[in-house]
Amino acid sequence: MVISADDFLRNRPLPIIDETSNDIGQAHRHTNELVHPTDVEDTSGDVNVLKEAISSPDSIQGSLRRSDEENRCQESALRLLDASARSSGALRERLQTKDFNDDVIDVVINRLLALGILDDEAYAKSAVRYCLSRRMGEIGTYQELRRKGVETHIARKAVDDAREDGAFIESAYALVEYVARRTRGLDKQVRLRRLWSAAGRKGHSSDLIKQAQYDVFTAEEFDEG
Prior knowledge:
CATH topology of the domain at 57-118: Arc Repressor Mutant, subunit A
Shape: elongated
Radius of gyration: 43 Å
Number of helices: 12
CATH class of the domain at 57-118: Mainly Alpha
Number of strands: 0
CATH architecture of the domain at 57-118: Orthogonal Bundle
Strand content: under 5%
CATH superfamily of the domain at 57-118: Winged helix-like DNA-binding domain superfamily/Winged helix DNA-binding domain
Structural class: mainly alpha
């Protein structure tokens, strides 16, 4: 015998759920535990933080501004280096006068050093050669390198290398010979005063000048005699 669906439902009605029953109460409580507003993490604070970060000067816009400042700082540095060779210290001082941020200057200088556009050791050697061409002594050369912004340890090494090569001995003799030629015919005391005045300005060792003075003036007197 075939029973229709209507007859089946009529004979077997759906159970009526009593909301006061323990099972339903437990289910209701379980549902509340899952979705109760007080148990959901409040993300409104995170959204506010994100909004503040986006609108902050230190956000993406701030990063773009810093990048733009780095570009301007680097362009300025390259123009300065095109005009004349400089140490990183001297370049830093010039960039500071242009009101660039110190951190930005550090980034630019480190980048130029890494690329080899700035080379303090090569600059120091070149500066030593320049000083020697002006008949300067060891003390004067070191002071000149420091004045040009070369770091202490780099300046000291460049000067030490020149001394080991005998460059300052040659420079001392070159200065004495130069003064001797320029003062020939003057009173000897006048000549010596001018020599020692020049030696002091050029930063020579007194011992080297004494030896060079003796050799040069003695040879001169011998030639005249």
